[in-house]
Design brief:
Blueprint: E1 5-10, H1 14-23, E2 29-36, H2 39-50, E3 59-63, H3 69-78, E4 83-86, H4 93-102, E5 106-108, H5 132-135, H6 138-144, E6 147-149, H7 158-170, E7 171-183, E8 186-187, H8 202-210, E9 214-217, H9 218-221, E10 229-231, E11 239-243, E12 248-254, H10 258-266, E13 271-276, H11 280-292, E14 300-302, E15 305-307, H12 309-316, E16 327-328, E17 330-341, E18 346-356, H13 357-364, H14 368-385, E19 393-395, H15 402-410, E20 422-425
Parallel strand pairs: 1-2, 1-4, 2-3, 4-5, 5-6, 6-19, 7-13
Antiparallel strand pairs: 7-17, 8-16, 9-10, 9-13, 11-12, 12-13, 14-15, 17-18, 18-20
Helix pairs in contact: 1-2, 1-14, 3-4, 7-10, 7-15, 14-15
Protein name: Saccharopine dehydrogenase NADP-binding domain-containing protein
InterPro entries: NAD(P)-bd_dom_sf, Sacchrp_dh-like_C, Sacchrp_dh_NADP-bd
């Protein structure tokens, strides 16, 4: 059996807070340290999680600067962490990733190291891709006998588990793995009027949606993984996708996302894409931010103070962790797989996971977008704790067996996590 699990979770924002509330109900770990730059925020998360289980003492709070790899290493060693769980935005992936390895701990994240592309490069030209910095260090993790599990949120994460499941159980040949994400969420003010408030980090939304989206095609690469990647202009190839469980049709566009960089590494497919149901209002806002230069991360001087325009935009919007009581509707994460089924016939199947905000708020006090993201790394940690999932090096969820994950996610509580997933064939 693996060593007793001691988790250092870096980040007590919306996803981190939800993850602690989910994890406290489970018995697979002996310690869970919630660390944040703001110690009081970490302490609030711990208090909220402990309140869900009387007598709970496994959770504790700590302070850490996620941008400082040495600080992450020092804290991981101090708390004897076996696993460092990165629950902050992708700007801090590399310091936490580096700090975990130096502390001889395994690592999990929900978003990978950032892409870098020259602004004047032709759109089809791919620069440094999401996750490239992490995969470049795979040999170090392998030599240390430690696992870095990348992209184990919902998208990426559950969508990647779906890809492995489809390849193993449903399809003989896959033409396309197409992640499709959409929702019918509405956020209202105190007077009941609809207001603009993103369901997760605006900093991350800007990063994903204004970067050129990446697509992978086997034929373009001629059998070479790296040669199969190319980019499109932001918001390319809009399509109306019909989401299940009452969400209905939503216009989706290409967005830069980790699935496209992960799935081709472990799953045989001819094409891999990611499209997100942003909606007309969000696309208009993002275009305006870009036009005004407010998407930039480069600091500018404002009355003698250096500030990043994107940080200012994010700070002006509500904290995604606080909007749950004003949110209504459902969010859907899923993967449309097309190709040839096990019976030799053409097949198109959408595998999906829907969460109703009313349910996540009632059961966990967490809005549905952050809750849906948070549950998947907790499930993964439980599978790692009991040895069902194991490995070393830098891996994606596709590299690990999917059925135990999907079974544990869907099984009723308390045996599982009580969050069923669905599957429907499309024509």
């Amino acid at each position: 059996m693996p060593e007793p699990m001691r988790v250092l979770m870096v980040g007590a924002g919306g996803v981190g807070d939800a993850a602690a509330r989910i994890a406290v109900e489970r018995d697979f770990f002996e310690a869970w340290v919630v660390a944040d730059y703001d110690l009081e925020r970490a302490e609030r998360t711990v208090a909220a999680a402990r309140a869900r289980r009387p007598g709970e003492e496994r959770l504790s709070a700590a302070q850490v600067d996620a941008s400082d790899a040495d600080a992450v290493t020092a804290l991981a060693r101090e708390v004897r962490a076996t696993h460092v769980f990165n629950a902050v935005d992708p700007r801090f992936v590399m310091p936490i990733f580096t700090g975990a390895l130096a502390a001889d701990a395994d690592y999990l994240d929900m978003a990978m190291s950032l892409s870098v592309r020259h602004p004047d490069a032709p759109y089809e030209q791919v620069g440094v891709k999401l996750g490239d910095e992490q995969f470049a260090r795979a040999a170090e993790w392998e030599a240390a006998g430690r696992l870095a599990l990348l992209g184990i949120g919902v998208e990426p994460g559950l969508s990647d588990v779906f890809a492995r499941y489809a390849a193993d159980e449903l399809f003989d040949h896959i033409d396309e793995l197409g992640t499709r994400d959409g929702a019918n969420l509405v956020i209202r003010d105190d007077d009941g009027n609809e207001v603009f408030a993103p369901g997760f980090s605006m900093w991350t939304i800007i990063e994903e949606c204004l970067n050129p989206p990446v697509v992978w095609e086997r034929e373009r690469g001629g059998g070479d993984l790296e040669a199969g990647f190319f980019t499109l202009p932001p918001f390319s190839e809009p399509e109306v996708f019909d989401f299940p469980e009452g969400i209905g049709p939503v216009e989706c566009v290409h967005v830069e996302h980790e699935e496209v960089l992960l799935m081709p590494r472990w799953v045989e497919a001819d094409r891999v894409t990611f499209k997100y149901g942003l909606g007309e209002e969000m696309i208009g806002i993002l275009r305006t931010l870009h036009t005004l230069g407010l998407d930039s991360t480069e600091p500018v001087s404002v009355k003698g103070v250096q500030v990043s325009p994107r940080d200012v935009v994010a700070a002006c919007l509500p904290d995604p962790a606080t909007i749950g009581p004003r949110m209504e509707g459902k969010t859907c994460a899923g993967l449309l797989v097309t190709g040839t089924g096990k019976d030799g016939s053409p097949r198109s199947t959408y595998l999906y996971h829907v969460v109703d905000n009313a349910d996540s708020m009632r059961d966990y006090g967490a809005q549905c977008v952050v809750w849906q993201t948070a549950i998947n790394p907790v499930v993964a940690l439980e599978l790692l704790a009991d040895g069902t999932w194991k490995g070393s090096g830098v891996l994606g969820p596709e590299a690990l067996p999917p059925k135990p994950f999907l079974d544990l996610l869907a099984a009723p509580r308390p045996e599982g996590y009580g969050s069923p997933w669905g599957m429907e064939d499309r024509t």
